Structures are given as structure tokens and as C-alpha cells.
């Protein structure tokens, strides 16, 4: 992909480079790229592994022998980087017995500013002519043989993979018949003697390379292969080599956007084309190869990891495969761009970069012998490891599914099948030439009318190949799509160019590659267009000017995530909530904010926006944007036609190579050797160049336009570029390692940048999580409107766990297990157990840091899972910072486990980090309770009877039943003497109610309960359920059981009886608190109205929140100042004071009214039908509650009636009935609220607002009622 391509260059290639053996400096062993070195760094085996290898298998330093021209201003030549990447493993030696096929690979150099240059290298072997080098090799062999001879006399197991039997004759042994001798020792000695100066020819690798501003691997491969062919074929080429190199450097331009270009190689034409500004960006690597190597399923998993910015390590023995997979995955991300470390080919000298605690996408070369199990990587807790050659991928835990994954796989598979590529993948396929590589099913199907092979026959042939397709077919049948369409869908049909015998200017193979590429890319791009069709609506435009927006960029929210997610189908949420947190999404939205009009947009953004507009025009009814209906890609034909048009009619043809002005005798060369070229003729280009001139005015025009636009924005263009660049770098410390031979100081500096980056990331994460969690309070503090959903909270906590794992993996000495944090906790626990066991322990032993609970949870199987559970539990207990501080206070242990440069050994940063984590104690998280819903948890219940009337005389047997958001316990008997009980049951979730009562046995069965406390013994959360009432016959309201509603108590407030009201459970106390304190006994009518308003308001707000964010509805109905309390105030206002010693309850009034209504109904006083229906409902509910087997008192019955009335939307009808009832006249004073018509009408209007909500009651509130 062409991100950040340097616009000054309009030449096809900037440099031509030759690398290889410098005969003057001789053989220098390459310590770092030694074959054993990868394992040496990752496993730390015996020293000197490189020297144990036979000399032909060792690696030696390669040099850049020459590059032409010396330098170009827009792209300075980076000698170190080019040298490392042209021959990442250094020089390789071979003899005539070995295979010496030329190998092509491409690479990428990313500069400090994020712009990229591409390299294309062809490595081949040349005979070594230098006598010194040959004799040096012979000497190395003599030394090596002497060492090995000593070893042979001590029988040991083979020490290096070399020594194990290979399937084919060993390349170092020109006489295979000797390899199968009976005794291994002799055969080994034979093999060590395998280079003999008198008998063998020595070959060494050499590399020619093009450095270009844009990636055209197919064209560059042809150019290099033809140049190599020129020196290796018997016939000399028509012109000197300099003519061809000069031509490619100076006379071949880059094809303009939307055009194709043809130029001449040594033996044949080369065609390349570039997409127009309205098409997907340039991409010229074969995507089919990625699917053949990995299979659709694996590719999609890898793609998901890349989108979520998980560390990705590709592993293969072919450099080109590493590059193809990396470039394909990043290209398929369109319109998003990978923002972090990107090194598709990691040179051996940069292996320490695998330790980087940041997201990365890197490619690691395997030597083909090393087994994956031997590869100990510094951190694997959040790593996606892709073994390309073995069709295998290792994923991190908890990877969410990509939205509509099955349908997506189906759509991709149809495209692949149409080109004869198996969706299962076929690794062998991609090594040789494909069986049906050139064949495309649609070409056979097109001529269906003439009785040629029909699609179904072909498909069944392709489908028999493997099971996945069978699975897909089953899926397809269910979804109602016929696989016959797979042929029809592809634009190879009657109208397509590929069958019209039009002269295509590039070879068939290449056209097929382009067609498959564009089809697959369009399918992927269409996913994002559908998913983010209405993203613009949610972009938060900054209110202040760009300068201040930029300086506060860290704190600003640029996208309304909560609203966006609340619109998405449920199954998308796990993936989307994590994706919206990534750097790539943030920078995509940043560039959207910084670019106002179309002219100014980055290419990718412009293309994406135009596609989104198209979709929105098609879907006039926006609701279709919200559905999870899968919509397949529709613009494949159009995209494919554009490519075919360019190949049929070539737009530009470059100048042909020609003789240069060279001295006689120059330009000769020796057969079989690629020479150094004449630098004088290659140092400068032609004086006048028509295409260089032609593009100049366009550049000026662009400059003018940018200038005008910048004035309009009050920013000059450089500033804007700087801003966009800075926005990209936000949150990423290092985009790219510096490719140079690294000194310890450079490595130290790199690590220091990582440490700073980790701290910054920790600061941003904690801030983000707090702002989200505190919700409204934060908004009042001016942090912008935000609210958090359950999914989003989970995402943020998961990303915190990931950050902690990265911090704990940075600078590890020795890796144990997949989770560095968990292994540190276990080490700590072990060392504490040892010191506690020592007799001179100071004070009592502290609680173990590693909660025994976590180790006992059977559901969590892996170390990474245990570490995450531990972090969640510590956060819920508000102990994360304290625990980690304690863990890191064992300095000896930290020193033993970590290198000096590790984050955990930088004291200041570590302190700041713990300080940031401390801020989580300000809010309540339920991140453990809500996630581990199936585990067993011990609870402790304590009943506190009133101190005034001690419960010591109490004779009955009490019971409790505890309910939570997830489950309830059933009846638990409580011992009457202790009045407390501990029990274990499946996680109840956040606790909501306690039902309690007694069996009324014994002489004194009256019980005055102050409150009940219930404590979750794992998380330490304690809930208080206030009661303050009697339970007993003939006392209070005669109730033997009550339903208590409780709230979470803050740990420090047991002394003051104040509840902790954290936002997730918060009802709106508003004004209520104030007037209750003014007159606790009697409220006036306006206060009562306000109370009802507040209670209803709380319920309305509850339903307006996304489902995941809602607190407890029970609390809003029956809790302090809830709906039941508010209506109680309504009915108590103006209630005639009862005669002495006799309490009258609201329930008494309701029962009398019921009697009146029933008799009125029999007398049929009011024939109005509406009235009768209401009366019937009212009486039915009253009877049902009175007939319940439960011993709830009169107040309990009133509470039940209000809850049922709210559920069935009948409350306002009942209030109207009771107002007109003659019983009201008898039992209420004239000033009573219920007798005031206007007040009652406003009360009815307020209650009517509940009609639109579907109120579901907790089982404990309506137990025993069958309505």
C-alpha cells in the first residue's frame, strides 16, 4: 500500500543496488544473523552456536558493493537498512552439489516520519573466483573437522539439526551413497569433509535490488530477473547492462493515477498500472497466495487480530511470504491504516525488538529446522503467532468474532472458488505452480448456452475437495443463496473482457492476479462501508479552534462511541467496542476532523466517504443501516472493468533503452558474473525530461490549492501536515526501529522510549476509564458527554489487562508460562511462603496476593485467564494499586526476574504508574462479579436486631432468601442465637433484595430488625438492607415476612449510616434529600408532588439508558424515596388520625374501598363500562394479594399492589377510582391531597408516563401471586 509515498519522486525507481561479498575485506562471520542466532537470542543456548555449524552453513557479513546514483534528494540512501534487508541473513555459501535457484523478495523501509520506500531484491549465486576466500573456507573446514573429530570419539546424541538424517541426500555431501553407512560416526565425518578446494566449486550469494517509491513487485521482479538472465545466458544482451539500468532509473516514470505504463526490460516488455483516485489504493502482491497458505478461516482470524492492534508475529522461511502476508493484511484494512511498529522482515540484528511492549506486526525468518515449540518468545499473553509455512495460527485468548463471520467467509470463498483457489488453503499449492492457477471457473461456465461444462458440475468438483466447503454449502442452503451463483457473480461472464479475445497487454497470469486481488479487496472494503455507513453522524467536531484542539488532543473524545454502539446489532458489540478503542480508528477519525472539503481529504478517506455516500443513497430508509442483515459487495464488476480497460489499452509507453555515451571497452562483462557498473554514466539523469517537466505545473497547482485551503483553515499546510502526523503518532511511541547496526546506547534509547510510551498509555487509559465510569459527574466537570455500556466497560478493562501484561513482559530475563504477570505473582507467593515459614517472621503473615479463590476457580484454565481474573478481582476490591505495589516492593525478586532496562525497574515511572492505578479506587467496578457469572461464591448474612428491644427473648426460627441480578438463593434458615449465616452458592451478581421472616413459633415471636448486612466474601462488597420494622403477629402491621431492598455500602462508611451511591446504581436523589430533612414527619402537597415526580423520573431515566447500563429497578420502585414510598406519602396525606391505641394502615382504606366497589358492582350503580373494568381489575388484584400464602403485613401488601399496578400500567386508573370513592370522604380530611381534583389530575398525568415502559418485576416482589 502506498502510505506516505514521497511525492517529489516521479521516477519508477530511485536506486539500483548491488550487495554481496566484498573480496577486499574477506570473510567476516556475521554474529547476529547466524542461523543459530535466532534461537540463541530467543532461547539462549550454548555460546558459539554459529561456529558449531559446518562452515558452509554459517553466515558471513554482506556489504552494499555499489548503488546508483550516489544519492537523490527526496529519498536519501540508507546504506544500513538496505544492506540488512537485501540480505537479511548475510552471505550464504554453496557448492556445486547444492541447489542455487535465484530467490526474489521485497521489503519495506519506513522512515522516521512514517513515509515508506520499497525494495525489491533478487538473490542468486556466483562462483567464488578469489583464491583467498576459497582457501579461507578450506581452513575453516580443517579447524571444524578437527573439533568434530574429538567429539566423534565420545558417543553423544547429535548436537545440531545438521546431524539428523535428512530425507534427501545432504547438500553438503556430493556423494550420497556414503550417507547410509551403518555407523553414524563415520557418515558424520564424511559429511564434515564436504568442501574440498581441489574437488568442489564454491559459490556465494549476491543480490541486485531496486529501491522504489511505490510497490510494483510484479514489474520489479521481471526487470531484475531479466537483468540476471542477461549475465547468466550464453548470448550477451543486445545493449550493455548500464543502458537498461539507466533506463529504469531515469527514463521510466511512475504511471500516473488511473493509467497503465509499458516499458522495456532486457528481453521483453513490462507492464504496470496504477489505480485512479476513485479506486482502492495501489496493491500489487498476490492475495491468492495468502489464502492458499493460510485458508480463509485463519486469514480472517489474523485480520481480526490486526484490526484490534494485537501483537502479530509472522513466521516463515521465505522472505517473500512474510512480506506478502503482511502487506495483504494491511491492505485489506482499508480505510484504516496500521499505526504501530511494522517490520515485515525483521533483520537478525533487531531481534531484541520482539521484546517491544507495543503493538507490532513483524515477520521472523525461520531456518526451516527450528520447531515452533523451541521458539520462546518474550511475551505471548496477547500475541497472534502465524506459522505461514505450516498453515497454522495461534491466537490470543478472548478474541471476539468478526461481525457476520460466517456470511463473510462464504462471500470470500465464492470469489476464491471462482479462481480455482481452495478456501481451506493449500500450502503445497502455493509452493509450486498451482494446478489450476490459470484456470478460472467462470471462464468455463460462461458459454453455458452451447452445452459446455455447467457450473454445478464444476462446483461439485471443487466442493468435493474439502470439508469446509461442505460446511459452507450447508450454510448457503440455510441462507437461501445457491452456489451456482458463485460462477455468475464473478464478472468473467458474457460481458467480461477476458473472453472477448481482446489483446491483453500483460500476461494472463498477472491479469488473473489483479482480478482476484480487486475482488477480494472489494469484499473486505464493503464490510467496513456497511459497518460504518453512518459513522459521520457520530464524529465529534471540536468546538475550539484547531490549535487548542491539538494541544488537548489526548483528553478529547473525537467519536461518540456509546451512541454508535447503542445502534449496533448485539453480536457486533464485542468486536466493535474493542475496535473503536484502537489507534487506527482514532487516527482515521482525526483525519476526518482535520479535512473539511473533499479536495483536502487523504486519498483513503475520500474513496471511503464516496462509497459510504453511495450506500446511503441506496438505503434511503436509514434503519436498514442498523440491521445485521448481511449485504454482499455490489461494485466488483466496476472495479474489475477499470483494471481490464487499463491492460487492454496501454496509456503510456516509456522510452526504450538505448546506447549511452560510454568509453570504448566499458560495458563489457564476464559471463556468469554480475559486474559493478560504470557509475559515471549512471550518476545523473538526462538534462531535459518531458515527463518531469509535465508534472511540475501540476505540483504547483496543488501547492496553490493547499495554500488557499490552509488560509481558510487558519493553518498553513506544513502545520496541517504536522498535525496529521502528530495525530498519528499519538499513543504510539516508536513507529519503526532504526535499521542500523545497533550499539548498546541505541538499544537503551529505544527501551527508554518504550518505557515513556507505556507510562503515557497507562495515563490515558486510566483517565479514559474514570471519565467513562463517572458518567454524569464527569460531564459536570466538563469532560464532554459520555456514558459507558457494559460491553464498553469490559473492553476497557480487557485493554488494561493487556497493558499490564505488556508492562510485565518488558525486559523479562527468563520467560515462564504465557502470562508474565501471573508468573510474577506465583514467584512472589512462593518467596513469601518461604519467608513466612522462617521462624523470625515479623508480625502476622499478610493475606496472600494471589487470591486463593482465583486458583480454585475451575472455569479458568490458563495462566493468562488467571492473571485477568486477578486484575478484575483486585479492581472490584479497590486493591489493584496496593497489590501491585506490594508485589513490586520485593526488589530482590524484581531484580532476579527483570533486566535493568525493564519498565518495572524504572523507579520513577513505576511510582507514577501505581499512582495512576490508584485513581480506580474512586469508583466501583463489578468487573469480576459480572464476568465470572457461573462460579461459586461464599456469602455472609448478618441480621442486626434493634438495640432498644434486644432480640434475646425472641423464640421463633428466622429465615432469609437473598436475590441478585443473576439468581436467588431460596430459603435459608438462620440460627436464632447468632442470627448470622455463611453459605456458598452460584454467583448472584449485584444483590438487590433480601426476603426475611420467621415461623411465628414459641412464646415470644416478635422481632424488631434494624437492618440486614450481606457480604460477598470474594469481592468484599457489602450490601445493607434497612428494615427498622417489627416482624410478628399483632405488632406493627402484623407482618411475618418482609422484602427489603438494599444498596452497596462503601467500605469506610460503616460508622456513618450513609449508603454509597455509585453511578451505575444511582437513582436521582435530586431535591428529595433536602425537604426530608426539613420536615421528616409531615410533607406538604408540593413536596409530595415533587417526591412522586422524582420517583417516576428515576424510572423513566432507567428505561432511557441502554440495557447494559441500567441499575436496579427494584431500588427505584421499593427503595428509599422510590415509587412505593412516594405513593405512601400521597395516601398518608390528610389521613384522619386514628383513635387511641389503634393503628390504621393505608391497606385498611384500600380493603374498605374494595368492599364498597364489590357491593356497588352488584348493585350496578354506575353502568359505565370503563369504570366496571377498572373496578374488576382493582378487586382482582386486592383479592389475589389478600389470599397469598405469604405472611406479608399490610405495608408489604401495599408495596406489592403498587408494584403490580406499575407493571400492568393500572396505577393511574386506580387513583382515579379511589378519588371518586365515598370511603375516601369518610377516611380523609378535606385538605387531603387525594380530595384535591387538580392535584389528583396532575398525579394521574405523571403516572401515565409509565405506560410506555415494559416493567419486569423481580421474582421476590411478587412471589405467591398468580396474576
TrEMBL record:
One of its GO terms (molecular function) is small GTPase binding. Residues 791-933, 1114-1262 form the RUN domain. GO terms for biological process: retrograde transport, endosome to Golgi. It is found in: Membrane. SMART domains: dDENN (SM00801), DENN (SM00799), RUN (SM00593), uDENN (SM00800). It holds the Pfam family RUN. One of its GO terms (cellular component) is trans-Golgi network. Keywords: Guanine-nucleotide releasing factor, Membrane, Repeat. The keyword Ion transport does not apply. Residues 937-1045 form the PLAT domain. Residues 44-602 form the UDENN domain. InterPro entries: cDENN_dom, dDENN_dom, DEN5A/B, DENN_C, PLAT/LH2_dom, PLAT/LH2_dom_sf, PLAT_RAB6IP1, Run_dom. Signal peptide: none annotated. Its main location: membrane. Belongs to the RAB6IP1 family. PANTHER family: DENN DOMAIN-CONTAINING PROTEIN 5A, PINSTRIPE, ISOFORM A. This is DENN domain containing 5A. The lineage of its organism: Eukaryota, Metazoa, Chordata, Craniata, Vertebrata.
